[in-house]
Predict the 3D structure of the following.
Amino acid sequence: MSRLAGGVVLVTAQEAPLDPDDPGSPEGENAGMTATAFLSVSLEPPLVLVSLRTGSRMDDLIDEQPLWGVSVLSESQRHIAGRFAMKGRLSDRLLFEDIPYTRGEITGAPLVGGALATLECRTEQRVEAGDHTLVIGRVLNARVPSAEGGPLLYFKGRYRHLN
Ligand SMILES: Cc1cc2nc3c(=O)[nH]c(=O)nc-3n(C[C@H](O)[C@H](O)[C@H](O)COP(=O)(O)O)c2cc1C
């Protein structure tokens, strides 16, 4: 599969606040995970799919609350991909600190500034498949923050760009 070139996305979500009934409760932490196992599934309704390692932080988080975001990374965002692919990461709050992002209007998920495209999704279906969970999400919102620039690609274990 390392011979299959793929685009790279950052899947994100915001944890639920500590006390959802208290408007003064601190915001939940941001979480992000680098993924290449992401694809479009259906146009009507608009569905996408991401494959998450079962038991990963992102899988656990999205299992608890169904709202998540996707940022399609550009070739200038390799450092973001590398950062969010590290295992046993420290607090995600620190990882997002110097990354420009907006919060999805519907999902609250961080959406990376300068990404080629961003999506907001709600989980429709979860399918256990071996050691991964296929998460199918309905696209609730789609934006194109940065029309310029090429995609970040992953091929034979390395980040690449076109040309
Ligand atoms: C280029 C690249 C693509 C990846 N794609 C996926 C993916 O599609 N699904 C997945 O579960 N993990 C994928 N990973 C691994 C996760 O990014 C990594 O395991 C995760 O961030 C670690 O989080 P954890 O500590 O919660 O397991 C990928 C890693 C890299 C470097």
Remarks:
- The pocket of flavin mononucleotide is lined by residues 8, 33-37, 51-53, 56-57, 84-85, 87-88, 154 (CB under 6 Å).
- The mean pLDDT is 93.
